[in-house]
Specification:
Layout: E1 2-3, E2 9-11, E3 21-25, E4 32-39, E5 42-51, E6 54-60, E7 63-64, H1 65-77
Antiparallel strand pairs: 1-2, 2-6, 3-4, 4-5, 5-6, 5-7
Length: 81
């Protein structure tokens, strides 16, 4: 695990998720794309770095859906540290 630039702890994507629902995402035109995802009754944020044709994907811990929504709003408003 490590801290991404927003201060949120991120790590390698969890491989055990068979079904995933993307709730909302940021603009794909930027180098860093964030997605609020839901799977198995929990939610998490997936961060994709798109640089020079290379993609790096990292995910946060799983939270209850409401708590993940709070972290999502903090991330977008610049309050996540």
């Amino acid at each position: 695990m490590w801290r991404c630039h927003s201060g949120i702890t991120c790590g390698e994507p969890y491989q055990g998720v068979a079904r995933l629902r993307v709730i909302i995402w940021t603009c794909r035109c930027r180098a860093t794309l964030y997605k609020l995802c839901q799977a198995g009754g929990q939610a998490f944020i997936r961060r994709t770095l798109q640089l020079d044709g290379d993609r790096q994907v990292h995910e946060t811990y799983r939270w209850p859906i409401q708590e993940a929504g709070d972290v999502w709003r903090a991330l977008l408003s610049g309050e996540a540290r």
